[in-house]
Amino acid sequence: MSADADDLELGYDLGARTVSFDLNEELYSKEAVYGAAYLFLDRVYVFLTRTGDAQTRVRLRAKGEATESDLEALAGEFANELLNQMVRRQVSDATSQIREYTLARAFFGNEGRASIDSLLAELDAEDLDDDPLEIEVPWERSGQGTVGG
Length: 149
Fold this sequence. Notes:
It is a single chain. The protein is α+β, with helices and mostly antiparallel strands. It has a domain at 5-95: Alpha-Beta Plaits (2-Layer Sandwich). The protein is built from six helices and four strands. It has a four-stranded antiparallel β-sheet with strand order 1-2-4-3, with helices on one face. Helix 2 (30-40) packs across helix 3 (68-94). The termini are far apart.
């Protein structure tokens, strides 16, 4: 069983400054499509349309002049970004428990509480009565707080 080269490529349609292609929603999640589209917003206008059951039509319209090869490159870059978004989601799902554990440890671990308690104790032990810069003297008593004085 071998696949034709045409089956392995993203089929797309070229128009005036546009490239369009259909995506199978069973292969690419909505989140992956949105993530890829978001990353292209600074370069192209992105239009998404539901064309049928489990089909999304993506149309990328260049913001400036674009050659046919530029549009073909856009389609290829978008396809690569779709794969990137899918892998990113898989890695995120696979490592979610590790992230949750690490965050719980950071926020609720005993080591963090002990260091906060020791810092507070250190502040309590400091002699805060010395005020060589007279920062605690109210403005009015310093003589600078009077108008025209």
